[in-house]
Amino acid sequence: MTPVPQTTPVLELSDASLRYRGSGAPVVRDVSLAVESGRSLALVGESGAGKTTLLRLLLGLARPTSGTVRFDGDVLSLRDREQMRRFRRSVQCVFQDPYSSLDPRRRVGGIVAEPLRSLGLDTRRTAEPKVAEALERVGLPADAAERYPHEFSGGQRQRIAIARATVCHPRVLLADEPVSALDVTTRIKVVDLLAELKQERGLTLVMVSHDLSVVASLCERTAVLERGVVVEHGDTAQVLGDPAHPYTRRLIDSVPRLPA
Amino acid sequence: MTLLDIRGLTIRTTDGHTLVDDLSLTIAGGERRGLIGESGSGKSLTTLAVLGLLPDGMTATGSIELAGTQIVGAREKHLTRVRGTDAAIVFQEPLTALDPLMRVGRQIAEPLARRRGLKGAELQRAVARALEQVRLPEPDRIARAFPHEISGGQRQRVALAMALACEPKLLIADEPTTALDVSVQADMLDLIDTLVRERDMAVLFVSHDLAVVARVTDRVLVMKDGRAVEEGDVREIVRRPREEYTAALVASARRLESALDTRRAR
Q1: Contacts of B21 by beta carbon, 8 Å cutoff, 6+ apart
Q2: Which of A14, A122, A231, B192 gives A126 a disulfide partner, CB atoms 3.0 to 4.6 angstroms apart?
């Protein structure tokens, strides 16, 4: 038996539930999950399973109606400005639709510099080389900073969103279906980029996806959600290779396969 | 017998951009054909052109013969006669394809009343039959529901029921499962496959996803930037793609799939 590592998870949900006011059943119920550094986590499930809600809880965009969300061992408190500053610097996010997540009226340079400016890390001038570096890392040309989002394709826009999310060197990147709006050939390239960021920058991903193959290529851990409840949780190889829950099995069997 | 004969189809915008360039494609009665391409390849425009549904500001040239009717340049009156009976279409997004203010039953009744002249109890029976044939549970409840009251998968079944209501010779399906969850997608593909085989109906199935297309069609045409890249048996194309672009598509799909398999093999 290997000893249980004593490190504090970066993010941790304990018995977290969220119920919207006036609605009957909770959207997520008694979820306990830990995001450990270097062990990327996938949240898998179908529409309405509560994947995005979990991500919102982890991002501090929603508060659990019961249970807690912890960041570096401390309960996440939106009122604690000092903690929020550390939190926003450590945890960034990328959304599904690259067409609606970028401000159409700002140049890409300004968009990517946004986290640096709002966290008070840099001025416009000192942000510039960091923005250039972030754009280069995601494989965009240097002159991209001067252009507007509409001048870019969907895949390129998702790269811009990734550059924005990684410019302040966060430890964790939360990604909500980051590649599902993209074409297959583009999808592969963005998956490769995320894998590279994991490898080279030690970034830990928390990824919401309905696409099991994307999950399999990027995440060490997988949690399967069905109607707000985690039905199965463990190493990706274990969960996808030897699913214990019938719902997981059904998800895996439903993936359309290329003819042999 | 040729059901759909597209020859040299070119679609241009009024400001001179060519969106589909010299495309030719024939589908025989009962044939199951796939159209594969990524965004911007012109696959959806091609399907719209077949029904004479191109948006304003786009013109088609060349020839599209559907069950003996020339579609390119045809007047609206002739097109109305063709739509629904010679060819019908299921779109990607069922929520926008259905009228949000009309109960589902009435939406299905509309083509039945207009094309087949059904009325009263007979019409109601036909609506129930249409819903049953797409394997919807409790057809009476669904018929009384508004589109927002049923799930995405159920809405797409309703859209399919509408398309099949007048027993078209050709079913055009444009990414019909892309907006659906995987398990719902699997059921929907099964359903389309069975219904089409039962009726010996021809299908033009459009998707960006090779594995999905392979599930319901025999031959595929690969498109890129408005042009045909390669055509052939779907299994053959996956096994031995001739063109570089097709090879890239197959390789991408394979790589994602293999990630799933290596995880499972351990």
Answers
A1: B10, B42, B225, B226, B227
A2: A122
CB B266 to CB A237 under 8 A? yes
Instruction: Say which CATH number the domain at A93 has.
Output: 3.40.50.300
For residue A146, how many other CB atoms are within 10 A of its CB? 10
Chain A residue closest in CA terms to B153: A47
Give the number of domains in chain B. 1
Q: In this structure, what CATH number is given to the domain that contains residue B247? A: 3.40.50.300
pLDDT 10s per residue in chain B (266 long)? Answer: 899 999 999 999 999 899 999 999 999 999 999 999 988 899 999 999 999 999 999 999 999 999 999 999 999 998 988 998 999 999 988 888 899 999 999 999 988 898 888 889 999 999 999 999 999 988 889 999 999 999 888 999 999 999 998 899 999 999 999 888 888 899 999 999 999 999 999 999 999 999 999 999 999 999 999 999 999 999 999 999 999 999 999 999 998 888 888 766 64
Nearest CA in chain B to A253: B183
Residue B39 is nearest to which of A183, A212, A237, comparing CB atoms? A183
Q: Tell me the shortest Cα–Cα distance from B78 to chain A, in angstroms.
A: 37
Task: Domain count for chain A, please give it.
Answer: 1
Residue with the two structure tokens 């398999």: B261
What is the predicted ipTM?
0.78
Which of B144, B147, B172 is CA-nearest to residue B44? B172
Confirm whether A2 is domain-assigned. Answer: no
Range of the domain at A115: 11-253
Element holding B256 (H helix, E strand): helix B244-265
The answer to whether position A196 is within a domain reads yes
